[in-house]
Design goal:
CATH superfamily of the largest domain: Histidine kinase-like ATPase, C-terminal domain
Structural class: alpha+beta
Strand content: 15-25%
CATH topology of the largest domain: Heat Shock Protein 90
Helix content: 40-55%
Number of helices: 13
Shape: rod-shaped
Largest sheet: 5 strands, antiparallel
Number of domains: 3
CATH architecture of the largest domain: 2-Layer Sandwich
Oligomer: single chain
């Protein structure tokens, strides 16, 4: 904005100002030329009077003639004492009377001639003419040191160029300040749009923008509305599709579960082992499909623009962890995994059902990828920086403005872990780390990360602190994984 619109405004304002400054210099020169022309005309009028001032020739040839200066000539010479002078020469240009420093002239015609000369730092305008006087044909000259044009040329830097240059510079700073102030609302609008989340499609208030920009803001608001309607339609489609998938999948899963139990019962004597394996694979597929539908629904509901409009509430993280633990206890027991809980009573402001979905996905991932005999631990409590602050289980008393206490929620396992270079990709949707064993859709961490962003945080993936310890799966070089959410 500053290098584009502001630069164009500065050029459009300063270029005419520079042209006006050059025009001012030209007009000053023309004014000085007019004054100089008037001076020439004055000298030309005084020339006949100076010729009439010669009343008699000199006593001897080459001697100064007898002079009786005309009043106008005398006033001219006395009025500019030190800056004027006259010279009277014979027909050959030899000096007879006046100031000898005035260079002689020898006009060939009776018409007056003009020239300029410098003496002792003063530039004189000199007029000379061949005239007939009482002493015969003489050459008379008048010098005027107040030539306006010559003074203008001499003082062009200090009195013409410098003031105009200062005027242009001062005007440039003034115009730059004025333009910056004038386009400040545009810069604020640009910053407001730049700070927006990609999912924030709320309308911009046209009243906070200049009248010239309001049509643009209105057009942007219409575009935001169209994009928001399209995104809302997509969210509704995903939600509806997930809802429609869950019902038949739930029925299918119930039937397959019943068949699997019957197959296990009949397969005890070895009669239909192949059918049992087939049905168990079918059950696994339906479980994955059902989980995918649930995760798609959770991903749709975790959209930031949808959650932003919902009010937050105080969530007891300890109670949340205690509620999630039994839901995954059967799966952990089936694999011989030690599923534990280390929780302190802390509360956080947020969405309870989203945090429940986040924790459920993290625990499900940990149990799924931790080898048999491993350990999965759920933790929550105050952050290390605020370990001395004990949060209350009851609804907290409102604290002073600006005072916040950090808490954390994490799940740690001693499974294969995720390499540091893969952790950024692991948070992407449908991405699975190469070589990962077990079933999964690649959505668990993506959903958890989406929910973390809704709560103005992000997931922190690191190696587990207990990896490489005792127990099955802990001595095989596994680094484990610790997923932490700071709130």
């Amino acid at each position: 904005m500053k290098s584009g619109l502001q630069r164009r405004l500065l050029l459009l304002l300063l270029v005419p100002l520079g042209i006006f400054a050059l025009l001012n210099i030209y007009l000053d020169y023309r004014t000085a030329g007019n004054v100089a022309q008037q001076k020439d005309q004055q000298l030309q009028r005084l020339m006949p009077l100076l010729a009439d001032s010669v009343v008699a020739p000199g006593i001897t040839p080459g001697a100064a003639p007898l002079l009786l200066l005309a009043p106008a000539v005398e006033d001219f010479l006395k009025g500019r004492s030190g800056a004027t002078g006259f010279r009277i020469s014979d027909a050959d240009g030899e000096f007879l009377a006046g100031e000898s420093w005035i260079a002689g002239m020898r006009p060939n015609t009776p018409e007056p001639e003009f020239r300029s000369m410098e003496n002792q730092g003063i530039t004189y305008r000199i007029a000379g003419q061949r005239v007939s006087t009482a002493a015969g044909e003489l050459i008379v000259q008048l010098a005027d040191g107040s030539d306006a044009r010559q003074q203008w040329v001499r003082s062009i830097v200090l009195k013409v160029l410098l003031p105009n240059l200062i005027l242009v510079l001062v005007a440039g700073f003034a115009v730059n300040w004025a333009v910056t102030r004038a386009i400040k609302p545009l810069l604020e609008l640009k910053d407001a749009v730049a700070r927006r989340s990609p999912r924030d499609l709320s309308a911009i208030d046209p009243r906070s923008t200049p009248a010239e920009v309001q049509p643009l803001v209105s057009a942007l608001n219409r575009l935001f509305g169209l994009v928001n309607d399209q995104a809302e339609g997509q969210r509704r489609f995903v939600a509806d599709a997930a809802h429609q998938l869950r019902t038949p999948l739930a029925g299918l899963q119930a039937q397959v579960e019943a068949w699997a139990q019957a197959a296990h019962a009949q397969g005890a004597d070895g009669s239909i082992t192949l059918s049992a394996d087939t049905i168990i694979k079918l059950r696994s597929a339906t479980r994955r499909t059902s989980q995918l539908a649930s995760q798609l629904l959770a991903l749709s509901r975790a959209d930031a623009s949808t959650v932003a409009a919902q009010p937050t509430q105080w969530v007891d993280l300890k109670e949340l962890c205690e509620a999630i633990l039994p839901l995954h206890l059967d799966a952990a027991t089936h694999k011989g995994i030690d599923l534990g809980l280390e929780a302190q009573a802390v509360q956080v402001s947020g969405s309870e059902w989203l945090l429940r979905e986040l924790l459920s996905n993290l625990v499900d991932n940990a149990v799924k990828y931790t080898p048999p005999g491993g350990t999965v631990t759920i933790r929550c409590g105050p952050s290390a920086d605020h370990a001395g602050h004990q949060a209350l289980a009851a609804p907290p008393v409102p604290e002073p403005a600006g005072k916040r206490w950090g808490v954390f929620l994490e799940v740690e396992d001693d499974g294969p872990g995720i390499a540091p270079q893969e952790r950024g990709k692991a948070l992407q949707r449908f991405y699975r780390v190469l070589g990962t064993q077990g079933e999964g859709n690649g959505l668990g961490l993506a959903i958890a990360d989406e929910i973390a962003r809704v709560h103005h945080s992000q997931l922190e993936l690191s190696d587990a602190r207990t990896a490489g310890g005792q127990g099955a799966g802990k001595d095989n070089g596994a680094r484990g994984l610790r997923v932490r959410l700071s709130l």
